[in-house]
Design brief:
Length: 229
């Protein structure tokens, strides 16, 4: 409905990622603080109860397996209903994320945290940016984008958006808590997720609207092409 929001997401996310990337490459003060936070949180994690550890480990599955399942359900449903706009959003966002993550993680090649005593397990692959964080923004952000505008009550719209934000934050925090990522890795993942979500979802909507009403694209109030479910 408001393409400017997509543009702002791209600018904001790109700016944040640029700052984090430069700090990582130059080993600036932000990275030193990043390591200190990771070490301190690791000590907290070692002293936490099994229930808390289990809840944090769950964030790994909520940020990976659950997202794959949601994506598969999206694809099957949109194919059966022939909702090509929404299908394009899912396929381009999910597929593009894998390519972006592969390129960036290989380029920066930042090792993940290494501890003598691990909370869960040690991950060998590069950690910057966090793939779970990117996926969380794309997936749960899209869910909020699809659901919230269809709710008549402002209260429930706020609830849906707040729930999506909390899930995204929980997944990112859990990755640092169990020692799989540094905080900067997670923040970089959020930033890339913002950029990619803003670019893909806005562009797909604009193209769909142009095809639907090419003559009056600028003359009529913009309306989202996303269907009611």
């Amino acid at each position: 409905r408001y393409p400017l929001i997509g543009l702002l997401m791209i600018l904001l996310g790109g700016s944040v990622f640029a700052v984090l990337a430069v700090s990582l490459q130059t080993h600036g003060p932000l990275i030193q603080t990043d390591i200190q936070i990771a070490n301190g949180l690791h000590q907290v994690a070692l002293g936490s109860s099994p229930f808390v550890r289990g809840a944090m480990i769950l964030g790994f599955y909520l940020g990976e397996h659950a997202i794959f399942a949601i994506g598969a359900l999206f694809v099957v449903y949109y194919l059966s209903k022939r909702y090509w706009t929404e299908l394009s959003m899912v396929v381009i966002a999910w597929g593009g994320e894998l390519v972006i993550l592969f390129i960036l993680s290989a380029y920066f090649n930042r090792p993940r945290p290494m501890f003598d005593i691990s909370v869960w397990r040690q991950m060998p692959s590069p950690g910057f940016p966090s793939g779970h964080s990117i996926s969380a923004v794309l997936c749960y952000g899209l869910l909020a984008y699809l659901i919230a505008p269809k709710l008549a009550s402002r209260f429930w719209r706020v609830v849906v958006i707040a729930a999506a934000v909390l899930i995204v934050l929980y997944i990112g925090f859990s990755r640092v808590f169990v020692g799989d990522h540094f905080p900067v890795d997670v923040l970089a993942g959020y930033a890339i997720g913002f950029v990619w979500a803003g670019l893909v979802y806005t562009t797909v909507e604009l193209i769909a609207r142009r095809k639907k009403n090419p003559e009056n694209l600028l003359a009529t109030p913009p309306v989202s092409t996303v269907r009611n479910y």
